[in-house]
Amino acid sequence: EEEDSDDEEDEEERADMHMARRLEAGLYTLQMISVIVGTVSIHSPKARDRLRNKLDQKDHTLSDIREVVVNFAQTLAREYEVAEQSSAKEGAGSDAKVREEATKKLEGDKQKLELVKSIAITFPVPADAGDAEGEAASGG
């Protein structure tokens, strides 16, 4: 049993290291840009068409950007869940000011998560015949 626990800890540590390397390589910037692009695309069909043309020039699609936003939302959801559990465990023994600050941070994290989730859900991906983007939008 102890060996399984060590294996789980090693796996978690490897996952953390992998995420740290990705963040250093520009993942956070990519996520933020994708969220902004998604927001603009949702509200401006003209901007969405221009973006689609620019992406086509680089052999990318709106689905690629949507995938980044969806993955970001999933990551935020996992982080929020961990923070919420941690806050619940630590909250009982903390003083009022620490609890209040933790609650504010948790609420901010929740708002960010909800925003990114809403963008991921409403991200416009055309459903053209035979278009891979349309398949991605329908979950296939």
UniProtKB/TrEMBL annotation:
It holds the Pfam family CTNNBL. Its main location: nucleus. The chain crosses the membrane at residues 25-44. InterPro entries: ARM-like, CTNNBL1, CTNNBL1_N. Residues 83-105 are annotated as: Disordered. One of its GO terms (cellular component) is spliceosomal complex. Residues 96-105 have a biased composition (Basic and acidic residues). Residues 3-68 form the Beta-catenin-like protein 1 N-terminal domain. Keywords: Coiled coil, Membrane, Nucleus, Phosphoprotein, Repeat, Transmembrane, Transmembrane helix. It is found in: Nucleus. This is Beta-catenin-like protein 1 N-terminal domain-containing protein.
